[in-house]
Amino acid sequence: MRLDKFLKVSRLIKRRTLAKEVADQGRITINDKIAKASSAVKAGDELAIRFGQKIVTARVEELRDTVKKEDAAKMFTILKEERLEKIEPEFIDDED
């Protein structure tokens, strides 16, 4: 199954077009390799998705073409959620 379709069906990302944009920006990895929207996803794969200042790591449990809202969460298991430290820009003081 394509990555963008899995993200939409599993409801990790609400819209397939948004899933495609996030993947094309290089913010998703499958098993520690940067993934495209068209990358194949299979059961057992580990996805890391960067949402702003947060990285969510999930394991794919099962693949389905359609799923009810209540059953969508069974398609994956959240392994961890990490908050990234907000990086403050360094200010250079040119005045002495």
From TrEMBL:
<keyword id="KW-0694">RNA-binding</keyword>
<comment type="subunit">
    <text>Associates with stalled 50S ribosomal subunits. Binds to RqcH, 23S rRNA and the P-site tRNA. Does not require RqcH for association with 50S subunits.</text>
</comment>
<protein>
    <recommendedName>
        <fullName>RQC P-site tRNA stabilizing factor</fullName>
    </recommendedName>
</protein>
<comment type="function">
    <text>Key component of the ribosome quality control system (RQC), a ribosome-associated complex that mediates the extraction of incompletely synthesized nascent chains from stalled ribosomes and their subsequent degradation. RqcH recruits Ala-charged tRNA, and with RqcP directs the elongation of stalled nascent chains on 50S ribosomal subunits, leading to non-templated C-terminal alanine extensions (Ala tail). The Ala tail promotes nascent chain degradation. RqcP is associated with the translocation-like movement of the peptidyl-tRNA from the A-site into the P-site.</text>
</comment>
<feature type="domain" description="RNA-binding S4">
    <location>
        <begin position="1"/>
        <end position="61"/>
    </location>
</feature>
<dbReference type="Pfam" id="PF01479">
    <property type="entry name" value="S4"/>
</dbReference>
<dbReference type="InterPro" id="IPR036986">
    <property type="entry name" value="S4_RNA-bd_sf"/>
</dbReference>
<keyword id="KW-0820">tRNA-binding</keyword>
<keyword id="KW-0648">Protein biosynthesis</keyword>
<keyword id="KW-0699">rRNA-binding</keyword>
<comment type="similarity">
    <text>Belongs to the RqcP family.</text>
</comment>
<dbReference type="InterPro" id="IPR002942">
    <property type="entry name" value="S4_RNA-bd"/>
</dbReference>
<dbReference type="InterPro" id="IPR025490">
    <property type="entry name" value="RqcP"/>
</dbReference>
